[in-house]
């Protein structure tokens, strides 16, 4: 069962990337683009239908509503356009990830956090 859940999560992740690509495609209808934009805005918004601080129930919108909205948006995009962008998303997944690049970004974040902590720390020499 865990394998099926992981597979489903990978499919959703690929479809989200494909929806992003499809939303930029002129062959995609405006209403599919609008729904994809709404889904992205809701997913990134700090405001939820059910607040996350409510135990168990708080994550239901992320677990149930977002995947259902993603599936609806996928159905609104023409099948040939979606197939093309799914293939592009799959190719992007297969590209190697730069560990060195990730290390540089992580080091910059840590350096920034350290400098900010030093600057805000009471009694530090400025």
TrEMBL record:
Membrane topology: Multi-pass membrane protein
Protein localization: Endomembrane system
Membrane spanning stretches: 30-47, 53-77, 97-121
Gene Ontology CC entries for this record: endomembrane system
Keywords: Membrane, Transmembrane, Transmembrane helix
Signal peptide: none
The keyword Transmembrane helix is annotated on this UniProt entry: yes
InterPro entries (UniProt xref): DUF1232 (IPR010652)
Domain DUF1232: from-to ranges: 32-68
Annotated Pfam families: DUF1232 (PF06803)
Name this protein carries in UniProt: DUF1232 domain-containing protein
Organism, as annotated: Roseicella aquatilis
